[in-house]
Automatic annotation (TrEMBL):
This is MOT14 protein. PANTHER family: MONOCARBOXYLATE TRANSPORTER, MONOCARBOXYLATE TRANSPORTER 14. The chain crosses the membrane at residues 33-55, 75-96, 103-121, 127-148, 160-180, 192-210, 321-343, 358-376, 388-408, 414-435, 447-466, 478-496. CDD domains: MFS_MCT14. The gene is Slc16a14. The keyword Transmembrane applies. Its main location: membrane. It comes from Ceuthmochares aereus.
Amino acid sequence: MYASREDIGYDFGDDSKAGSKPIKPNANIDGGWAWMIVLSSFFVHILIMGSQMALGILNMEWLEEFNQSRGLTAWVSSLSMGITLIVGPFIGLFISMCGCRKTAIIGGILNALGWILSAYASNVHYLFLTFGVTAGIGSGMVYLPAVVMVGQYFQKRRALAQGLSTTGTGFGAFLMTALLKYLCTEFGWRNTMFIQGAISLNLCVCGALMRPLAPKSVCEKYVVRNNGEDNQAKALSHSAETIKSNGVLSEEPEKKEESTNEEVLDGVQHTEIGGRSRSGRNMYGLRILKTVSQLTVTVKKGFALWYSSYFGAASLFTNRVFVAFVIWALFAYSSFVIPFIHLPEIVKQYNLSSQNNIFPLTSIIAIVHIFGKVILGIISDLPCISTWNVFLTANFTLVTCILTLPLMRTYVSLAVVCALIGFSSGYFSLMPVVTEDLVGTKHLANAYGIIICANGISALLGPPFAGWIYDITQKYDFSFYISGLLYMVGIIFLLIQPCILKRQPREKSTEEAQV
């Protein structure tokens, strides 16, 4: 529910350095175009996370088409979901160099390409590459910029904005389940992949809406007033804009590097001016040299920012509580994903397809999940309630539902358990708050990136593991029992930490209190 400034790597603080201009208030902060960013992020969650939650429909089609084991077929869905989260830290490198808008547009094209190429699949292994890897990487390239941009555009209403945008996951799971089921019935699964690929091109539209936030203001902050040379000003502007595209402003140690970059670009520009009197071939070569030099500077600076942001967090693993939290994340997310992938097949085995077609169980999870995020967030914001206690209670409820789901044999009982799964899984909205309590505001961004990556590994391995257990036992019961027990092990790792047990209700920071 809360997102600190470090969570997005953007500093809104004033710079008191001599000779620099202050940043003027931007009308789009907490208003104006900021709400278009929320709308864009909302549709990204629908098209990416919602589609992934509805892959159980396609999983059934792939089982019938290729006649492979459930464990092998489940790898297609889990690869797509897992890679989307796992590549998150590495997508930061693209954001550092290209900015959120270009990264999201490229990701939208890659995601649509993955869907379309999957229509030509001749076997499951082909789907691993086209749908699992290609579409998964494309999804990750759109998902991370969508989250980052909302954080950049909001200060006072950041919690509300993030909450509204992430509800797209629940809406998307409900809408995409119905859409994929209809398309598969009417046109077959191959044509469905074509249509869904065309729909996914709307991710490029969402990416185009991710307009950078006031690049001129950021440049003005770092351009020295007494600098009158146009070439040097352009070089500084280019470097500042590159840094800004990732939402991170450079610190003092980078000033020397900026000066070196300015000299390189300035020298290339002077060389180009002298080359105007030469032949056209030499002029063309100088332009190529200039472009390569600029690209080298951009890549070098972007890589430095990316490396310091993600690999500078190694000290976090000296925190025993955080290590326990990472272990919990490795087991937790799979217990939420497994029902989405395997429930349609379970319903078919129980001869409940007619009732499930009227109102799918996965849609029940998706709808209640929306309310769970909002209600649990409101409860945890109460001054007399500990966020950690709400988080633990929701986890215990979810693991109980996972363990009892195989015992339910009627549609009504399954619907009740699925509703509880959807509501209790709303604790995902509390994960940034809990992470901040564990590691502090300074390390929140890096720590949360590691947690998301651990969730991706869980989503990657969970569904295939459940399918593999079914292939051995010919029942899904043991899949839910084992995943539930592993989930319980992760919760126990959290409980055995004495400092967590003594944690008091979370107090608002001075900044949040002012907001």
